[in-house]
Amino acid sequence: MRCISLALCVMFAAGIAANAQDEPVRQPTEGVNLAAGLECVYDPTPKYRYSTDEDDPFQLTDGLYNGCVWTEPGTVGWQMHRERVILVDIDLGEAAPIGAITFDTVTGGAQVTFPASALAFVSEDGQSYRYMGDVFTESLPQDKHLNHRFVVDDLKGWGRYVRIAIIFGGFFSFCDRSLRV
Asked: For domain 2-175, which CATH number applies: 2.60.120.260, 2.30.40.10, 2.170.190.11, 3.10.20.30?
């Protein structure tokens, strides 16, 4: 199966880093990763001061997962201002079938919750995008620490460009190192 996996950690307050280190190591989703090692283009640019570094464009596709620890390099982060949507764009280099998208994120304590939505789009020209689906396919409790992988599969997408639109649900949004296409 060809899939897109996006490990996103959406946090709305501090205080979860210690719990994330207690989590078991997250294994990659099965299937061919079309985005492995590719650059991500973000709009807006990540600017969370504790985790932003020069490697941000490749940290979602390097295959590493650090548990969404927002104070460490390897986690890509934004603080919400006027923007309510984060766009993550990936150029796959050539058109390919896209059968699934996964989305790792974390919730729990200190106002940390999942994002409101993560919408997936595909394009052949990078200008006109077609909606493929919402990666958030289930409802889970958010009253305690939970690191979870959301999956939307059975997609029939085709394209060169993939866009994930992350809809803020709170004040901070963080992505981890595990984007798979």
From this structure: 2.60.120.260
